Amino acid sequence: MVSYAPECEPRDEGFLLADECIHGFDDGLCAICFPPPEPEPRPVVLATTRSGGRTTTSRGRPPARVPGASRPIIPAGAPQVDVKAMRIYHVTHVDNLAPILDTGALLADAAGATPVVDLAAPDAREFRRNAAIAGTDAVVADYVPFLLTTDAHVWNAVRTATPDPRLAEGAERRQPAEFVILVSSVASALGETADVPATIVVSEADAALGASLAASEWPAAQRALQRLHLDDDGTGLDAAELLVRECLPLDRVALIAVANDPMRDRVRAALAGAGMRIRVAVYPPWFQPTADVAL
């Protein structure tokens, strides 16, 4: 029998549904029906150099980041991002939905997750089971992994049929429409435990690739999320990962995104069979490849 913390236990209450657009999203959440405003022009960066004892100023982009160099601090005056409102995404094969619904939560590997279709390469899963998180008594496998964008490199590898060392053999040959995306938020992942260290962990690259897990307390995690959102127009989010300790109860899932109408009907039937109500949204762009497939 699977053992998990009380907050992971299945709950019987229904899920309240707000107004939604034609794609199944809450009003204001759909990027098609509610396109985001055009970004304001960025201020020109002035680079100061010295030559022959004179100081000169030229227009230019910030210098490229040197591999291995320390991450820059958030510059004074940079726009503040409401990181608690940031969405987080858990991609799984639709065949894994039944055990998730039976449990009533997304479980970490070490907490008893039992995927029917395991997408993780054996070496990557073994690494997570042995990779300690500094300052805690936990390993990466004690956490449920979430992406910070639907353009994440590992998910795009599936969408473009590109082999990836993090994926199980043959995973990239599966059709993207076979997958579902459970969408939550940083605030929901934290719950009421933001003051509890290591409730969430932010990694600036996939933990299975040996990335350092530097942000395990909320103030540090908050700063890391700010940096990832601001650096390089947010492209840092493509490689990053947010880890949630032990489980994420399904009442903290805002919606399940799918690729087409038949998959929506299949997921709705599974939810009805489990006595659960979670919004199911058809949103094809999240299941289509992006132009940039760099890993």
Please give a structural write-up.
The two termini are 38 Å apart. The protein has a domain at 82-287. The longest helix has 13 residues, at 218-230. The protein has six helices and eleven strands. The protein is globular, with a radius of gyration of 20 Å. Strand 10, helix 6 (261-273) and strand 11 (279-282) form a beta-alpha-beta unit. The model is unreliable at 10-19 and 38-77 (pLDDT under 50). The strands form four sheets. The chain has a four-stranded mixed beta sheet. It is an alpha+beta fold.
Strands, count: 11
SSE order, as H and E?
A: EEEHEHEHEHEHEEEHE
Count of alpha and pi helical runs: 6
Cα-atom radius of gyration: 20 Å
Beta fraction of the residues? 15-25%
Structural class: alpha+beta
Percent helix range = 10-25%
* Biggest sheet record: 4 strands, mixed
Regions with pLDDT < 50 over 5+ consecutive residues?
A: 10-19, 38-77
The pLDDT mean sits at 77
First-last Cα distance: 38 Å
Strand order of the largest sheet: 3-6-10-11
Broad shape: globular
